[in-house]
Write a structure and sequence with these properties.
elongated; HTH_TetR; Tetracycline Repressor, domain 2; mainly alpha; single chain; Arc Repressor Mutant, subunit A; 75% helix; Homeodomain-like_sf
């Protein structure tokens, strides 16, 4: 029989409670009750509710880094990444985008984490900063830098890279919110995502790539 990892269980049960009631709506007593341990036992693993939250943020970032490896995202210098994306056509963009979409939609940790931040970002400036960094700013900055390099290499038409990044990412973010929790419409969401990428590619890609 597998050994019960109390520290991990505390973390995930806390995440579910935060996603349902918000950070301020949950007490350490609530978490201990959900895990099935005494409050004093919980403090042996985490000093405070804030430490649990901070660990959740670190764990989520680590999980996404691990997931990114399985997505087979192009890595290395931006110049080489741009070339790999460009020569792979829109199929590589569709594949990677759908896998990232799946991760945020279906991974139990990622899905609950986003719900938790969505609830708390209006109450807490630090949580709002984390939400923007994780789900908006990092993605936009990365895509803008990538599109700028693809333009410089002649793979894409001349345009404002940041506006391109917004046009690329905004529909994906909207789809994620629209289909969150609707498992039976997952195929529909992926199909729409694919059409979005095809249309984006058709608008910005140069006709011939050597």
């Amino acid at each position: 029989m597998a050994k019960r990892n109390t520290k991990d269980i505390i973390l995930f049960e806390s995440l579910k409670l935060f996603a349902d009631k918000g950070y301020d709506g949950v007490t350490v007593r609530d978490i201990a009750a959900e895990v099935g341990i005494k409050q004093s036992s919980l403090y042996k693993h985490y000093k405070s509710k804030q430490e649990i939250f901070d660990t959740l943020v670190d764990t989520m970032q680590s999980r996404f880094r691990d997931a990114s490896t399985s997505f087979q995202l192009p890595n290395g210098e931006l110049r080489e990444m741009a070339k790999e994306y460009a020569t792979g056509g829109n199929e590589i963009l569709k594949k990677i985008s759908s896998e990232i979409f799946h991760f945020y939609l279906k991974d139990p940790y990622a899905s609950q984490f986003r719900k938790m931040l969505s609830i708390e970002k209006y109450k807490n400036q630090e949580i709002d900063r984390i939400y923007r960094e994780v789900y908006i700013d990092t993605a936009i900055s990365y895509q803008a830098a990538l599109f700028e390099e693809m333009i410089n290499q002649g793979f894409m038409r001349q345009a404002d890279p940041e506006i391109m990044a917004l046009q690329f990412f905004a529909p994906i973010f909207l789809l994620l919110n629209k289909y969150d929790g609707i498992v039976e419409k997952e195929k529909e969401a992926i199909a729409i995502l694919g059409k979005h990428i095809e249309q984006f590619d058709m608008i910005y890609r140069k006709e011939a790539i050597l």
